[in-house]
Amino acid sequence: MKSFTQVSGIAAPMDRANVDTDMIIPKQFLKSIKRSGFGKNLFDELRYLDEGLPDQDCSHRPVNPDFPLNFARYHGASVLLARENFGCGSSREHAPWALDDYGFRCVIAPSFADIFYNNSFKNGFLPIVLADDELEVLFSEMYAAEGYELSVDLESQTVCTPSGQIFSFEIDAFRKHCLLNGFDDIELTLQDSDSIAAYESARRVSAPWLFDAVKA
Amino acid sequence: MSGKTLYDKLWDAHLVKQRDDGSALIYIDRHIIHEVTTPQAFEGLRIANRKPWRVDSILATPDHNVPTTTVERANGVEGIEDPVSRIQVQTLDDNCDEFGIVEFKINDHRQGIVHVIGPETGACLPGMTVVCGDSHTATNGALGALAHGIGTSEVEHVLATQCLVAKKMKNMLVRVDGVLGEGITPKDVVLAIIAKIGTAGGNGHAIEFGGQVFRDMSMEGRMTVCNMAIEAGARAGMVGVDQTTLDYVKGRSYAPRGEVWDQAAADWLTFVSDEGAEFDRLAVIDGADIKPQVSWGTSPEMVLSVDSNVPSPADESDPVKREGIERALVYMGLEAGQAITDIKLDKVFIGSCTNSRIEDMRAAAAVVKGRQKADSVVEALVVPGSGAVKAQAEAEGLDKIFVAAGLEWREPGCSMCLAMNADKLGAGEHCASTSNRNFEGRQGYGGRTHLVSPAMAAAAAIAGHFIDVRDLDAQA
Ligand code: SF4
Q1: What is the pTM of this model?
Q2: Residue A162, domain extent
């Protein structure tokens, strides 16, 4: 798994609540059988003025001049600021893949939908929860200053603004550990193979119906 | 000591290992897979030279990309016109063949939407943990199972280890008391719940649906409700096991038989919340207050009773919410204050894992029987959730009723629920849909989705606009 330690970069806004994963990466792009290449279609329906098609060259498509990510000042952004319940809806892991492929390394919001939150960690992409009023500060400072950069440090669990103001965030110890070290979840779980096998044998005896094979 | 909730019991029964940091390894009994969220997982397995831990726990079927017209279906995978869809379905076939996984292929009579075929075949049973790379996996929670959607990395993890790394969620009880009014359906109940608690209302919680209304509800109705737990923010929704559950499961092809059945049934009946079990959150609704529901906006919480009017942003004090309403009105092409019954429909879609089981087909057929689709409705699709539902509906003559009324009867699949195949909305078109998501573009670029029950969708197909299905007779 990809690791995450820290990032300093331009912050960009996705200033609305309940941003769903259909919006982050529309379904027609889910037909890919790869993990990469989704960045050019991130927020496709908001970013472009025409309907996006899979495998299309996006460089000649009409862009929506009113969509903030298209503003020159947010080009190259790596920190996304968002509102409550970010990533709701479909479980598609293509959502964090698309954000990451576009160049974002983390997203800061007051709350996240559970599956999106979970999926993010599996991809070295950091979802950060800050309080509403803290986000309010970040949003307004960002709007006020072009080239507004934030520094995120996972080790110390902090977000630092250009003026040096520091906001701390919570994160589960296990997730932090895995992210910092780029551990592979499967490898870690397989270290417990014996426990899994032991659980399985006991259940085969106590609840045999759970082990009736799915037959063709 | 206070009692355990249903979720606590399911969790405890599947706990392989509790780690010191609060995360845990949970054993997965059943893994259902489809073509969209698995190619990258199989790729990962191959790269790491791993094999599935327990192949006989997995069941596969293609559903999202399969065409629903008989003509396009006739030639199986090769016949899928869209090359990108074809590759994805073919990739699932190849992966299942390579790893020896049982798959109901495109034209197998058991093929269908993952969440429909799980309970229907008995592959998903009470007391199980069920996962699938799809957020509506919670549908299986109706069986008294712990079922939830997972991402592709987790699909790979479950394939390789038969376990999920999870953190225990909190417990939430949504209780609907009393008795539903005449003509009120499970879909109306779940839409009313989401309208009340919001799309983030269940975040971080497993929701148990309790109360008299759920005790009285059929299994298929419970599935409709659990299906939409995710639209209420919860990864898992569930209903305790009772006689209704056992009657439903008995005799299904993968369900236990004979002595093992007796042993299993006795075990399953323990999967209910204990008297006095404590929940972290509680929401209570009076069933008698629920009317037919219609979503007007672009989030499943933007739902109203059919006799209401579209909201006005001016009445909302929270600025983020106000903007949400404004944006939704523009996208949906609606005026603040407009009556829901004045919304005209261009298309109607009856199907999806929320409402494509036999009871849904019957409810819709009962409404359109002997009536005619309004001319202004250009397309009305009825898409059964599985081959088995299709066969049963045809045996009952429901297909003929739909066709006689001017609706189209299709082959099973996800279809216009998310428009990954040819079934989709055009820009600006309004659709009465029995699916579960009304997000912008969900049913087609620029399409406008209104979530309703099968009976309400059928009534809208007849009237050409929304109408309380109970008033249809009066109007005709
Ligand atoms: S019917 Fe719709 S919601 Fe259900 S699995 Fe298919 S695409 Fe997803």
Answers
A1: 0.92
A2: 6-171
Cα distance between the two ends of chain A: 35
The verdict on residue A197 lying in a domain is: no
Minimum distance, in Å, between the CA of residue B270 and any CA atom of chain A:
13
Question: Does the residue A206 lie in any domain?
Answer: no
Taking only the tens of pLDDT, chain B with its 476 residues reads: 579 999 999 999 999 999 887 889 999 999 999 999 999 999 999 989 999 999 999 999 999 999 999 999 999 999 999 988 999 999 999 999 999 999 999 999 999 999 999 999 999 999 999 999 999 999 999 999 999 999 999 999 999 999 999 999 999 999 999 999 999 999 999 999 999 999 999 999 999 999 999 999 999 999 999 999 999 999 999 999 999 999 999 999 999 999 999 999 999 999 999 999 999 999 999 999 999 999 999 999 999 999 999 999 999 999 888 999 999 999 999 999 999 999 999 999 999 999 999 999 999 999 999 999 999 999 999 999 999 999 999 999 999 999 999 999 999 999 999 888 788 999 999 999 999 999 999 999 999 999 999 999 999 999 999 999 999 876 54
* Domains: count for chain A: 1
- Distance of CA B414 from the midpoint of ligand 1 (Å): 5
- Supply B469's token pair: 């299905």
Distance from CA of A115 to the nearest CA of B (A): 7
Q: Tell the burial category of B376 from Cβ atoms under 10 Å away from its Cβ (0-12, 13-18, 19+).
A: exposed
> Which residues are bridge partners to B27 per DSSP?
B163
Asked if B327's CB is within 8 angstroms of A196's CB, the reply is no
| Residue B206, helix vs strand vs coil | strand
- What is the ipTM metric for this complex? 0.92
In a domain, residue A182? The reply is no
Q: Are B72 and B122 in contact (CB under 8 A)?
A: no
